[in-house]
Amino acid sequence: MWGTFDILHEGHFRLFQEASKLGNLYEIVLPDKRIGESKRIVHDENERRENLLRIGYFKDVFIDALPDLKCFDLVPPDIFCFGYDQDMQWQEKLKSHISNKFPKCKFFIMGKYANIHSSNLRKAMKYSRSSGKRF
Question: Was domain 2-125 assigned CATH 3.40.50.620?
Fold first, then answer.
């Protein structure tokens, strides 16, 4: 799996629960420099990694992104899960990268497990990363 996972919510927990039925979970957290281009974040990459490790679904969480994805040198993927709402262009790039290196890897697009989205929560938070003030 890969994603931002900045503000964890019920949908994420259900996603992790469903994905864990497929095998051991490893997560790729996108680095801040990649996310900053597309949306504002609440937690930096290290906080997001620690939050994911704390919830107990993951064997490990890596901070990584295309084009490197060095995490696959440590843990070659057998199965890779995408979220239902992940950008199709990035999904195809990532799928192509993984397929070239690991042709037996299977891909799944996971369902929507709750009527909530992080972007809606982020808008409601009135958070300014530059000022460091929350709510």
Answer: yes
